[in-house]
Amino acid sequence: MTLVQMHSRSTSTNTVPRTVADAMDPAGPQVWDTMTVEVALSVMAAARTGHLVVCDEDGQYTGLVTQARLTAVRDGFGYTDRLRLRDISDNDGPFASPLTTVAEAEHVMRHRRLGALPVVDEHGNALGVVALSR
């Protein structure tokens, strides 16, 4: 399910806003931040996905990398086959709590021009990803 799908709302006054927990897709492939860029691209191709959730050695979410980002890094000046995801990861990138409303997540994604937004619980575990449909 994607964020831009519309659902009819009840006219009742006790309607609860829909959260990203209701709209997210499973996190998909989760990889360690010690993985090389080349291996990550191979995993992404095999999984037929446009993004990977990156975790540290404790399994905690550290970032999200996209195929476009990995390809740009690989094709960039100074690339070596030893470059790891932790070296290129945007650790301070946005993520959503499962309690974030769909409207809030959609606003962040449109404002920051993101195609996907990870959903992370209070313990740092990646639960899923919400994405805007094209």
Automatic annotation (TrEMBL):
Source taxon at top rank: Bacteria
Coiled-coil intervals, chain numbering: none
Keyword Coiled coil: no
A Pfam family that the UniProt record links to this protein: CBS
CBS domain: residues covered: 24-82, 88-134
PANTHER family to which the protein is assigned, alphabetical: CBS DOMAIN-CONTAINING PROTEIN CBSX3, MITOCHONDRIAL, REGULATORY PROTEIN
Name of the protein in question: CBS domain-containing protein
Organism of origin: Streptomyces viridosporus T7A
